[in-house]
Amino acid sequence: MHQTETETSDRADAAAYRLIVENAVDLIVRGDAARNRIFVSPSSREVLGFEPAELLGRHAYQLVHPKDLDRVAATFGMVGTDNPRLDLVFRMRRKDGRYIWVEARYRHLAEDNGILAIIRDISAQKSAEQRLAEANAKLAEANRALQEMAHRDGLTGLANRRHFDESLLQAFRGARRRRCPLGLLMLDIDHFKAYNDRYGHIAGDARLRRVACAVQEVVRRPDDIAARYGGEEFAVLLPATDLEGAIAVGDTIRLAIGALLIEHLGSPSGTASVSVGASSVLPRTTDRDPVRLVDTADRALYRAKAGGRNQVCGLAMAGLTGACRRPRQ
In this structure, what is the dihedral angle of CA atoms 203, 209, 211, 213, given to the nearest 10 degrees? Predict the structure, then answer.
């Protein structure tokens, strides 16, 4: 019986397809309408470690990682006439029990409502992605640490002048927008040059650190910022704080530093102390920067030092009214 040219061509095509399937690196699986495997390519040996016969007749969910099962089931449920092509990345279990990452491309087969899956092992790619993600996370953490270092004073650990200036402008704009007061304290360690001359710069640095810790212990609200303003001078930003509140915080800081009982024989009191200037502003819509607030707090600090030091002086923005709190006897 003679074969027609069409039959010969069909046989050649079938042989070519079989050759491709049997030598494909990717795993090729055909499932029926119930999603049971009715064909598994020989590459199952390399991809999953199973012989094709070990996988035939089993449901497609059989080897899916439990944590990925819901996603796979949802995707399988969508593959059909309306969604003939869907891709998914998930984990499958090899015969040795190890899970690998695979990329599966599902194609709907209209003739029997079955499904064709081409599955590729992408474990190496996922591993590289994970290493890259970990490296990026470490880099981001390093950048955050560098950013934090850039905003911190190296000696005291408080915010540095640059960070304070940026925060002051932001807080000022926020106070203007919300129409709430913004308080500011300027602190100066009394007779600090005399302390350094008597005890040395190493002791002076240690004193700065202890004062900074005492300030930070008082300034605990999330939006408050304590900073080393320069040398022995500190600044404290107090959002949503009026003049009376700022004076109260300043006095708490003054008392906390006095309670440290740091010896300073060059001071009239015999111990370390600070002078504090306090001010507060309710920004007007026409105000563009906090220069007046800083200037007023500076003048209040000068008044505290001129009045005998170791006290808190507060000035209203106009500089015409205010109050001072002196040491309790």
Answer: -150
The parent domain of residue 83 ranges over 5-126
**Cα angle 314-317-318, degrees, rounded to a multiple of 5:** 110
**pTM more than 0.70:** no
**Would you state the pLDDT for residue 328?**
43
**Residue 209 belongs to some domain of the structure:** yes
Rounded CA-CA distance 266/163 in Å is 33
Q: Give the pLDDT of residue 5.
A: 57
Same structural domain, 160 and 254:
yes
For residue 115, give the CATH number of its domain. Answer: 3.30.450.20
Residues 102, 199, single domain; the answer is no
Extract the runs of DSSP E, i.e. beta strands, from the chain.
Answer: 27-31, 37-40, 85-93, 99-109, 114-121, 182-189, 225-230, 233-239, 274-281, 312-315, 322-325
| Residue segments in the chain with a per-residue pLDDT below the cut of 70 | 1-24, 285-286, 318-329
